[in-house]
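Issue: copy button drops trailing tokens. Both records pasted manually instead:
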Amino acid sequence: MSDRRYVVTGSASGIGAATATLLRDQGATVIGCDLDDADIVADLSTPAGRNSLVEQVARSGPIDAVLAVAGGGRTGLLETNYFGTVATLEGLRPMLARSAAPRAVAVSSTASLAPADERILQACADGDEATATALLADDPALHGSAYGIAKRALNGWVRRTAPTADWAGAGIPLNAVAPGVVDTPAAAWILTDETVRQAIASSAPQPLGFPGRPEWIGQLIGWLAGPENRFVTGQVIFADGGAEATLIGDRHWRAAG
């Protein structure tokens, strides 16, 4: 690990900070990226910020893994969580391809399990940010769903993209980790309001505990991004205390009909 260099977006707090700390404790070099308090300061909700991140990383030297964790907050959710994440991973992919053991991980969420507007999902898949954000802005009923829509679109992108020649064909495992409710600053609005807390805990039960800890998620991200992961790619792994299994059950594995 002392020879590995990791780019971690969202490194200033929450899951990103916990992951960066774990990696540094293992001897890796971490290039932290965030809105402030980071090695690289960039706003991933804007095209200019995304370009700036890629340019700054390129000047920092070689990299071995990209961990796209940034995505918290209450505004710019679609822009940051989908378009910013995809731009980060795609923009840094050529640098990753030069590593002896390149890895990439995006952070999703159990919010991706909620129903999502198909028009916005299609615009995301098409890379049409203007249409996706316009559709979201024009429908007030969707404003509270922006985070889940972005994460659902991200899951689809990972599944489509991971097996392609540019990723698996270049020896780059690409996966997503989908946490449940975790004790981070971004989740404070859930955890500090008892009514909201109880509603979320009831609608998406986490049998192993509510809330989770950011370092628990960071440990999984670290393994997926490490040289030990040679054969896992294209997966959306729910690190959620059992929420996805509770909500979805075995429906994907039942006999047809």
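Record 2 (pasted manually too):
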Amino acid sequence: MIPTTTDVAIVGAGPVGVAAACALAGRGVDVTVLDAAATGSDTSRATLVHPRTLEVLTRIDVARRMIDEGLRCPDFSVRDHDRVLLPLSFAELDTSFRFTLAIPQDRTEAILTDRFAALGGVIQRPHRVTGLTQDDSGVDLTIDEGRTLRARFVLGADGMHSLVREAIGVGFGVDDAAGTSGFALGDVRIDGGLPQREACIYFGNTGVLVVVPLPNGAFRLVADVGEAPESPDAAYLQALLSERGPQARQVTIKEVLWGSRFRIHHRVADEFAVGRVLLAGDAGHVHSPAGGQGMNLGLRDALGAADAFVAALGGDARALQRYGAQRRPRALSVVRFTKRLTRLATINPRLRPARNLALGGVGHLPGVRGRMVHTLAGLNDR
């Protein structure tokens, strides 16, 4: 049953919302999590968890289980078919986690949910928040067009179309990616030679193909295609893999486990903290999946928001504003980074051979590789 009062109400029970809930519950804060969906996610979606994110997740005792279930990928490369243009390695990073972890989003969410339950938490679902008002002492949430929950503070982790963001009157910027090329994605089982512990971006003359190994032996494929089918089948994905992927050895798709499509957006909320309300994850920022930064940034938001709420509950009147001042610039930085990667990946076809030649040249410069891998790993978010 939904309580009538709580210290912190979290709207949204995806990985970001539940990670924040774990951090709060683990520090003795009364937290209530609300989600409109009847069940959690059952698709893989975001698949990479980077080193800095693993560092912060150790605080809520989930990193080890995620690593046990996931696949460690110490290398990341940009390729032109079989030629490596830009080799990147996490092996020399200043962190205990010298790899990016491949793990499907539904498993990340399940592990976080299990941890929240172990801390005594219950996700209240399906319950839709339909209204929010705040005053100097708290926030009133209207739920399912009827009952009301009074919270001292609120975290909006309810995605790109956030009701919380709209209710506090925060704009979501201008989407300068609107109308850009569509992307197809699929999780597939294959026969043939794809790197087993390396995330690869293939820069072909007809477009980009991202290939990420998954812990169940499957591979995630993502490609810019213009207009993508709603559910890409094996023949469609095979054509992309054969045209843009490795050529030295034949790679054959045996089975499509899941397929979908998406368009990218680049937006950042005008503010991340308004009164007693904070925003985190896609409620505050959405951007290209280039470099696998989205969920990673959101999870780091979550732990930062939890710290801010604990400080505010302890009497620190400026804690929430500091969160906003810290996290929004970080979101802007990540959006700029993913924009550059996306422009590079989807450059005009006539310029793609020149792009590949240039990348092959800078790929031999240790300074370039070092900066790139440091950014990918999220270590500049310390």
